[in-house]
Specification:
The complex is a heterodimer of chains A (400) and B (868).
Chain A: E1 16-22, H1 26-39, E2 44-48, E3 63-64, H2 71-91, E4 102-106, H3 109-124, E5 130-132, H4 134-140, E6 156-160, E7 164-165, H5 168-181, E8 185-188, E9 192-198, E10 201-207, E11 210-219, H6 225-231, E12 239-250, E13 258-261, E14 266-270, E15 275-282, H7 294-307, E16 315-326, E17 333-336, E18 342-346, H8 352-369, H9 383-386
Parallel strand pairs in A: 1-2, 1-11, 2-8, 4-13, 11-18
Antiparallel strand pairs in A: 3-7, 4-6, 5-6, 9-10, 10-11, 12-15, 12-16, 13-14, 14-15, 17-18
Helix pairs in contact in A: 1-5, 1-8, 2-8
Chain B: E1 10-19, E2 22-28, H1 32-38, E3 66-69, E4 72-76, E5 87-90, E6 104-117, H2 121-132, E7 137-140, H3 157-169, E8 173-176, E9 179-185, E10 189-196, E11 199-212, E12 216-218, E13 231-233, H4 234-243, E14 251-256, H5 261-270, E15 274-279, H6 288-293, E16 297-300, E17 306-308, E18 315-318, E19 321-324, E20 327-331, E21 334-336, H7 339-343, E22 348-351, E23 356-359, E24 366-368, E25 396-398, E26 403-404, H8 405-413, H9 419-426, H10 439-450, E27 467-468, H11 469-473, H12 490-495, E28 499-503, E29 506-511, H13 519-532, E30 535-538, E31 543-548, H14 552-559, E32 572-578, E33 584-594, E34 597-602, H15 607-620, E35 628-631, E36 636-642, H16 646-653, E37 664-669, E38 672-677, E39 686-692, H17 696-707, E40 713-714, H18 717-726, H19 760-763, E41 774-781, E42 793-794, E43 809-817, E44 822-830, E45 839-843, E46 848-854
Parallel strand pairs in B: 1-5, 6-7, 6-11, 7-8, 11-24, 13-20, 14-15, 14-20, 15-16, 30-40
Antiparallel strand pairs in B: 1-2, 3-4, 3-5, 9-10, 10-11, 12-21, 17-18, 18-19, 22-23, 25-26, 28-29, 30-36, 31-34, 31-35, 32-33, 33-34, 36-39, 37-38, 38-39, 41-44, 41-46, 42-43, 43-44, 45-46
Classes of the chains: A alpha/beta (400), B alpha+beta (868).
Chain lengths: 400, 868
C-alpha cells in the first residue's frame, strides 16, 4: 500500500546504472532530479553513506542570495535564484522559500567601496541590488544597532530584496521525492569505498554493498570530496574546514530579514519556527570531523550582540558543524575531470545551499552531455592550471 | 499541596512571586516549579494544539513548564531558584526578546587533574576519592547544592553532609555549584556555564581526566492522554515530595515498567496519599509486598491506557477499568545522561536490560560512573501503549513539540528509516529540552513501527542545556569586541578634532576638519598644504617586521617580486609581494639596517597576514633559511613630514639627514634617538621620522612646533589617498582586489626576471599572461566637476543597458584634486592601456558619467618634486 505522504522508496540496489551519483545531499538529489527531468536519464542511483541530506544540507543556515560580484558567480547563483523562485510549484512541495531580503552590512570604508561596487555590478548583471544608508538599514531591520558608538559602526549595507531563506530539509525531500518518482534509486547506508576502473576510465564504484557498474560516476560529496577523489587517483585543490552554526530557543518574531556581516563576522535570520539561526566564519584548521571549537562560537555571539543588543537574553540551544570544501579561489569546481567517466562537483565553500538548484541543473547538463554548460564552464578544474580564477574572495579587500 | 513538614526548604523564609500576574507564596529552597506545584499552577498551554499542560519533571529535562522571567525569554521553571518578587509568565513554546542584557558575564580559564561532572552519589564518591589523593579536583554541579538525586532521599542526607564537609577540607578541590558542564570538546577541554547573581561565568577547563557522573533522566510512558496535567515522572514526584515537601496529588496511580517507581509509591503512601501501582510487567515485583504492607494497591500486568479530566487528570483507564486519581506518576525506565560522553566522541551501545543507550567506548580521557554508566534497574520496555479506540494522536512523544506517535508513524510511512529523518520530519527533539525525555522513546516507536531493531540516537551536540548568548559573548562587547589599536600620538589627534576611520584594528585620523569645514574642504586644504608647504601624518600604524639572520636577504628575494639581497646598508627600496597565485598581496618599503638585518613595512591592515605569510613559507618550505621575523609595529612611532618645506622642519630637529631619496640615517630628532628616512608616498620631498613609541607624542609635538612658522598641517588617511592617487600609486586592497597582478598595475619594472619568488610561476599561466586583462588606468570625467563613485562599473559608450551588460571594469579610487583643480579617478579596465584617450561610461542608478581613459599618473609625471 502506498502511504499518502510517501516521500521515497527504499529500493533494492541494482548492479548497474547509467549514472551513479556519490552523495545524497542537496546537490546530489537535485542532480538526479534534473538528470531525469531535463535529460531523460532515469537509470540513476544516488548513493548515500548515511541518511539522505544529512551532511551540509542538514547543517546550513538556509540563506539564499545571488548578489555575487563576479560575472561568472552572479550568473550561476542568479540561475539558482530563478529556479528557487519556481521550486515549490515545480516540485509540488512547499519549501518555505521566504524572500525577506538579505542585508550585507558595511563597517569600514573598504566595505562601503566593495558594497557599492557589488551593487553596481549586480544591477548590470540583472541581479536585484540596492545600497542602503545606515538609516535605511534601520528602517529595513529595526533591531540592528546603527549607532556610531559600536566598535565597527554600520556605514551602510547592500540589500538584495529577492534574497531570503528556505527550509533546507523540505528542499532535500522535495528533490528526493521528485527524483524517486521519476525512477531514480535513492540508496541510503551505501558507502563508496573505491572506483572500478577499466583502462583509464572509471566504470563503476565499489561500495560496502558490493561493486556497482556505472556509465558515469558523479561526485557530489561536499565535506569529503578530496577523500573520495583521491580514491580515483585525483588530487583536488580543496581544503576542508568545519563551519559552525547554532540556533536559539523559539522566539516570537523579532528579526524580519537576513543580516550578514563579514567584518563583524556573523550572519543571522529567524527561522519559520521562531529560532534565531546564526552562523559565522570557518574554524581555521582542516578537519573532516563535523564539530568545531567553542571559541568560534564565543566570537560569533559577541559579534551578534554587538549588532543586535536585543539578542542579549536569548540562549543557544544547539551548535553543530558542517564541513565545507574550500577551493583556492573560493569558487566551486563543477565539471569533468582528467579521469574519464568521473565528474566532480565540490568546492562550494559556504555557498552550497543557496546554489543547490543551479548546481544540480548544470551538473546534470554536464553529465548528460559530457561537457559543461556555459554557466559552469568557468568553474572547471582546468582554471587552476590556466589561472582563470573566479576569485570572489578577491573582493574582500585589505585595509590600508 | 505543601506538606506540613519535611523537605529542604527554609520555612522561615517565605517568598512572594507571581505567575501570569497572580501572586503566590513559596519558600527559600523552592524552585519556581515546586512553588507552582504547591499552588496548583499549570504550565502554559501547548505550542500548536493549545492543550493544557502541567509540570512533568523536576530538572532540566522538563518539557512543559517554560516561563519568561523578566527579560529572560525561556527558562524551565524547574531550573529557576525561587527568589522574592519573581514575576514569571508561562509560555507556549515561544519566548520574547525585548531588552538588551546588561548582566555581568565573565570568563575563567582553569586546569585540573580531575573534573567530576555531577555532584550526586557517584560524583561525590569520585570527587572525595580523587580529593583524598591530593589531586586538583573540580566538581561541577548544576544545582544550587550538591547531592543530585540524594536530595530526594532524606535517609542519605547525613552521609551527604559528611561528604560535602570532607570535600570542603581539601585545599586543592574546588566545588562549582549552579555550574552546568555543557560542552566537551577535543583534548579534554570542557565548557561550564555557571549562574551567578546578576549574570554568570563561563569556565573553560582543561582536565587531566574527566569523571562523568551525570545521572539519568526518566522516560515517560506513551499512552493516550499522557500529557494531561497531573501526569508526572515518578522520580520527579519523589523529588517534589522529599526535597520540596510538595505532594502533587492525594490519589495517585503509579504506572511503571521497572522497580524504581516503587520508591515513589512508598513515599507517597508515607505522605498520606492513596496509591495504586499499575506495573506493566506480568511477573509481580518483589517490592509489591512493601507497597501493600504500607496500604497501597499493586496490579501486575496492568497499565494506564488513557486519562480523563480537565484540565487536571481525574481518572485513568486501566484497560477495561477506570481508577479515579489526581496524580499519575509514570516511569518508562531511565536514560543515562550520555550527552557529554557522546560530545567527547564516545560511542554508545544499546543495553537490552535497561532498554537504554549506555556509554561504550570513550575516545578521550573520561569515564562514566553510576547511573550515567547504565547502573539502573532493569525494565520491561513498552514503547507504545495502544488506546482502546486504536488512535495514536494523543500519545505524546515530545510534549513541547506537540508531537505524537501518529506523527512518528507519518514519518516512517513516508519512507523514513533514520532517527535523524524522523526528528526533522516531526520536529521531535528540537525544542528547548532537545528531546531529553522524548529521544529514546521516539527510537522505540520507530523500531515498533518498522518492526526492526532500535535505531541509533540522533547526535548529541553542545550545549547540554541552553546557554545565554550573553554568557558566551562575555565581556567581548562594545570597545572590547575587538580592542581598538591606537598610536602613541592618538590623544593629540582626538584633541585636534580629527575624524577617525577604522583601518584593520586601528583607529586612524581620517581628516582634521576646522570648525565649519566640510570633509571635502578639509581634504582639499590638507592636500594643498602637503603639495605647497608642509603636511604631517601619523604613519605609526604601518606594519613593521624586522627580519634578522644571515639568510634574511635571500628570504626577502624569495618573498618579494623584486630583489633585496644586494640592497646597500643604509638604503631603502619599495617592494611588492604576491600570493602563490601571482596576485598582489602586499607592498611596502624595506630598509636594510645591517648586513643581516632588514626592516620591512607592510600595509596597516595586512601586517599580521604578512607576518603569517612569512612564517608559513619559512616554517613549511624553507626551514633551512636562517631568518627570524619579529613584529615591531608597536615599538615605533612613525611621523611622515611631507612637502617642499619638510626638509626645513625636520632639519631644524634632526642632528643629521639622509643623503638622498630612499636612504636613511640613525640619528637624533628633538634629542631623541631616531631613524630618519627619505621615503615619499606623495611624490613630494618627504621624511619619515621613526622614534621609539614612548617618545612619539613628544617628537610629534616638536615637529608641529618646528613647522608652525611654515603652516604645518596635519593630514589623515583621506589626504594620503588623494596625494598618492595623483601620483598613480595603487593602494593594495583598494586598487587591487586579489585578482590583480603587478603587471596589471603597470609595474613590470618591479617583477624580477632573474630570480625566483613566490607567485612567479603563476604569472606565466595563460590567463595571467592574457593581453586583455584588467589594467590600472586613470580616468578624467568629461565634466571636471563630476565625481565618479568608487565602485562604479565601467562600460563601453554604446553598450545597451539590458542585463547582463558586458562590463569593462570598475572605479577603484576617485577624488577631487586641489593640485589638478578637478576630479580624477583610478580604475581597473579591461585592456585598459589600449584604451588611453577613449571614453568609457559609468552607468549609475540615476545617471551615467562619461570619462576619458588616461595614464594613471596625474601629477608631476617626471618626478621632479621628489627632491624638493
Amino acid at each position: 500500500m502506498t502511504h499518502p505522504d510517501r516521500l521515497w522508496r527504499n529500493p533494492c540496489l541494482k548492479w548497474s546504472y547509467d549514472v551513479v551519483i556519490v552523495g545524497g545531499g542537496g546537490h546530489g538529489l537535485a542532480t538526479a532530479y534534473y538528470l531525469a527531468r531535463e535529460h531523460g536519464i532515469t537509470n540513476v542511483a544516488v548513493l548515500e553513506k548515511g541518511w539522505l541530506a544529512g551532511g551540509n544540507m542538514a547543517r546550513n543556515t538556509t540563506i539564499i542570495r545571488s548578489n555575487y560580484l563576479m560575472d561568472e558567480s552572479a550568473a550561476i547563483y542568479e540561475h539558482a535564484m530563478k529556479l528557487w523562485e519556481g521550486l515549490s510549484d515545480e516540485l509540488d512541495y512547499d519549501i518555505l522559500f521566504s524572500q525577506r531580503g538579505v542585508l550585507n552590512l558595511a563597517h569600514t570604508l573598504g566595505d562601503v567601496r566593495e558594497g557599492v561596487r557589488r551593487v553596481n555590478a549586480n544591477r548590470l548583471n540583472g541581479v536585484d541590488a540596492e545600497w542602503l544608508t545606515p538609516d535605511q538599514v534601520k528602517e529595513f531591520c529595526p533591531i540592528v544597532d546603527i549607532s556610531p558608538d559600536v566598535r565597527y559602526p554600520v556605514l551602510g549595507a547592500t540589500l538584495q530584496p529577492r534574497g531570503g531563506i528556505a527550509k533546507h530539509d523540505h528542499v532535500a525531500w522535495a528533490y528526493a521525492r521528485a527524483a524517486d518518482r521519476l525512477g531514480v534509486d535513492l540508496v541510503q547506508g551505501c558507502e563508496v569505498t573505491g572506483f572500478v576502473r577499466s583502462g583509464g576510465r572509471v566504470v563503476g564504484v565499489d561500495t560496502n554493498r558490493g561493486p556497482i557498474r556505472a556509465g558515469a560516476v558523479a561526485l557530489a560529496s561536499a565535506g569529503h570530496s578530496s577523500v573520495l577523489a583521491s580514491l580515483a587517483g585525483l588530487r583536488l585543490p580543496i581544503q576542508s574546514h568545519p563551519l559552525q552554526a547554532m540556533v536559539s530557543e523559539l522566539l516570537e518574531p523579532v528579526h524580519p530579514c537576513v543580516v550578514m556581516s563579514n567584518h563583524v563576522h556573523v550572519y543571522v535570520s529567524q527561522a519559520h519556527k521562531g529560532e534565531l539561526v546564526l552562523g559565522a566564519g570557518i574554524d581555521p584548521f582542516n578537519s573532516y570531523a563535523q564539530r568545531g571549537s567553542v571559541h568560534v562560537v564565543e566570537h560569533q555571539l559577541a559579534a551578534a550582540l554587538e549588532l543586535f543588543p536585543v539578542f542579549g537574553h536569548a540562549h543557544v540551544l544547539r551548535t553543530w558543524a558542517g564541513i565545507v570544501d574550500t577551493s583556492p579561489d573560493a569558487s566551486p569546481i563543477v565539471g569533468p575531470t582528467p579521469v574519464p567517466g568521473l565528474y566532480v562537483n565540490c568546492g562550494w565553500g559556504t555557498g552550497g545551499f543557496k546554489a543547490t538548484p543551479a548546481s544540480g541543473w548544470v551538473y546534470a547538463h554536464t553529465i548528460a552531455h559530457g561537457e559543461p554548460h556555459a554557466l559552469n564552464r568557468p568553474f572547471g578544474l582546468d582554471r587552476f592550471t590556466t589561472g582563470a580564477l573566479v576569485d570572489e574572495h578577491g573582493a574582500a579587500a585589505v585595509a590600508h | 499541596m505543601r506538606l506540613p513538614s519535611g523537605g529542604r526548604i527554609d520555612r522561615t523564609t517565605p517568598l512572594t512571586f507571581t505567575v501570569d500576574g497572580v501572586t503566590h507564596t513559596g519558600y527559600r529552597g523552592d524552585t519556581l516549579a515546586s512553588a507552582m506545584l504547591a499552588n496548583n499552577v499549570l504550565a502554559g498551554p501547548s505550542i500548536h494544539l493549545g492543550r493544557p499542560r502541567g509540570i512533568v519533571a523536576a530538572g532540566v529535562e522538563e518539557p512543559n513548564a517554560l516561563v519568561q522571567v523578566g527579560p529572560e525569554p525561556m527558562l524551565p521553571a524547574t531550573t529557576v531558584e525561587l527568589t522574592d518578587g519573581i514575576e514569571a509568565t508561562t509560555l507556549s513554546g515561544r519566548g520574547r526578546l525585548a531588552t538588551p542584557n546588561d548582566g555581568y558575564f565573565d570568563k575563567t580559564y582553569a586546569h585540573c587533574d580531575v573534573l567530576v561532572v555531577g555532584g550526586g552519589r557517584a560524583g561525590l564518591a569520585a570527587a572525595v576519592e580523587a580529593g583524598r589523593s591530593g589531586a586538583r579536583v573540580f566538581l561541577a554541579d548544576e544545582q544550587p547544592e550538591l547531592g543530585g538525586s540524594l536530595l530526594s532521599t532524606p535517609d542519605t542526607w547525613e552521609w551527604l553532609d559528611t561528604v560535602v564537609a570532607e570535600l570542603a577540607s581539601f585545599p586543592e578541590t574546588r566545588v562549582l555549584t549552579r555550574a552546568t558542564v555543557f560542552g566537551y570538546y577535543d583534548h579534554n577541554y570542557l565548557s561550564i556555564a555557571q549562574r551567578r547573581p546578576g549574570g554568570g561565568r563561563l569556565w573553560h577547563v582543561r582536565a587531566g581526566r574527566v569523571v562523568l557522573a551525570t545521572g539519568a533522566h526518566e522516560r515517560p510512558l506513551v499512552f493516550a492522554g499522557n500529557d494531561r496535567p497531573g501526569v508526572m515522572l515518578a522520580g520527579a514526584v519523589r523529588t517534589y515530595l522529599n526535597r520540596y515537601a510538595v505532594r502533587p496529588g492525594r490519589r495517585a496511580v503509579v504506572c511503571t515498567n521497572n522497580d524504581s517507581a516503587y520508591a515513589t509509591a512508598l513515599d507517597l503512601l508515607e505522605s498520606g496519599a492513596e496509591v495504586l501501582v499499575a506495573d506493566v510487567r506480568d511477573e509481580e515485583s518483589a517490592l509489591a509486598a512493601l507497597v501493600r504492607s504500607a496500604g497501597g494497591e499493586v496490579r501486575a500486568g496492568t497499565t494506564v491506557t488513557g486519562t480523563t479530566g480537565s484540565p487536571w487528570v481525574t481518572s485513568v483507564s486501566l484497560g477495561s477499568e477506570t481508577a479515579d486519581c489526581d496524580l499519575v506518576a509514570v516511569s518508562g525506565g531511565w536514560n543515562p545522561v550520555v550527552h557529554l560522553h557522546s560530545q567527547a566522541g564516545g560511542t554508545l551501545r544499546y543495553d537490552d536490560a535497561t532498554a537504554a543507550f549506555v556509554p561504550d567506548v570513550a575516545r578521550q580521557a573520561h569515564v562514566s560512573v553510576g547511573s550515567a554508566n547504565g547502573e539502573l534497574d532493569p525494565v520491561h520496555p513498552l514503547w507504545t501503549i495502544p488506546a482502546a479506540d486504536g488512535s495514536w494522536d494523543t500519545h505524546f512523544v515530545d510534549q513541547q513539540r506537540d508531537a505524537t506517535v501518529a506523527d512518528v508513524l507519518r514519518a516512517t510511512g513516508a519512507g523514513m528509516r533514520s532517527a535523524e529523518h524522523v526528528k526533522r520530519y516531526t520536529t521531535i527533539g528540537t525544542a528547548h529540552d532537545q528531546g531529553k525525555t522524548a529521544g529514546v522513546n521516539t527510537l522505540g516507536v520507530i523500531a515498533e513501527a518498522l518492526g526492526a531493531g532500535t535505531p541509533g540516537p540522533t547526535t548529541y551536540r553542545p550545549p547540554y542545556t541552553p546557554v545565554p548568548f550573553a554568557l558566551l559573548a562575555g565581556r567581548d562587547r562594545g570597545a572590547l569586541l575587538d580592542p581598538a589599536r591606537v598610536t602613541p600620538i592618538h590623544a593629540w589627534h582626538v584633541a585636534r578634532g580629527a575624524e577617525f576611520e577604522n583601518v584593520g584594528q586601528w583607529r586612524r585620523p581620517w581628516y582634521y576638519p576646522l570648525p565649519g569645514e566640510t570633509m571635502t574642504e578639509a581634504v582639499l586644504r590638507e592636500c594643498r598644504a602637503a603639495r605647497e608647504g608642509v603636511g604631517v601624518q601619523d604613519a605609526s600604524t604601518l606594519g613593521k617586521i624586522e627580519l634578522v639572520g644571515p639568510d634574511a636577504g635571500e628570504f626577502l628575494n624569495r618573498m618579494y617580486t623584486n630583489a633585496f639581497a644586494k640592497l646597500p646598508v643604509g638604503t631603502a627600496r619599495y617592494g611588492m609581494m604576491c600570493t602563490a597565485d601571482g596576485m598582489v598581496f602586499d607592498d611596502g618599503v624595506v630598509l636594510r639596517l645591517a648586513e643581516d638585518r632588514y626592516l620591512a613595512t607592510t600595509t596597516t591592515g595586512n601586517a599580521a597576514a604578512v607576518l603569517d605569510h612569512f612564517e608559513e613559507w619559512l616554517q613549511t618550505e624553507w626551514p633551512d633559511l636562517r631568518v627570524h621575523c619579529t613584529s615591531v609595529t608597536e615599538q615605533w612611532a612613525t611621523i611622515a613630514v611631507v612637502g617642499p618645506l619638510s626638509g626645513r622642519v625636520v632639519g631644524a630637529l634632526a642632528a643629521d639627514l639622509p643623503p638622498k631619496f630612499m636612504a636613511f640615517v640613525d640619528t637624533t630628532v628633538h634629542g631623541v634617538p631616531a631613524r630618519v628616512a627619505r621615503i615619499s608616498f606623495s611624490g613630494e620631498l618627504a621624511y619619515e621620522v621613526n622614534v621609539a613609541g614612548w617618545h612619539g607624542l613628544a617628537v610629534w609635538e616638536a615637529v608641529m612646533a618646528a613647522g608652525e612658522e611654515f603652516g604645518i598641517t596635519p593630514y589623515g588617511t583621506e589626504t594620503m589617498h588623494v596625494l598618492r592617487a595623483e601620483k598613480g600609486y595603487p593602494i593594495v586592497g583598494q586598487d587591487t582586489d586579489g585578482t590583480v597582478t603587478p603587471l596589471d598595475l603597470g609595474m613590470d619594472w618591479i617583477v624580477s626576471k632573474r630570480k625566483s619568488f613566490v607567485g612567479k610561476r603563476s604569472l606565466r599561466r595563460p590567463d595571467t599572461a592574457r593581453p586583455d586583462r584588467k589594467q590600472l588606468v586613470g580616468l578624467l570625467p568629461v565634466d571636471p566637476d563630476d565625481l565618479l563613485p568608487e565602485g562604479a562599473q565601467l562600460v563601453a559608450p554604446d553598450t545597451p543597458l539590458d542585463p547582463p551588460v558586458p562590463m569593462l571594469g570598475h572605479v577603484t579610487s576617485s577624488y577631487r584634486s586641489a593640485a589638478l583643480g578637478r576630479t580624477f579617478a583610478l580604475a581597473l579596465l579591461r585592456s585598459g592601456r589600449d584604451r588611453l584617450g577613449q571614453v568609457v561610461h559609468a552607468p549609475l542608478a540615476d545617471r551615467t558619467i562619461a570619462a576619458i581613459v588616461t595614464e594613471p599618473v596625474f601629477y608631476d609625471p617626471e618626478g621632479t618634486r621628489r627632491d624638493g
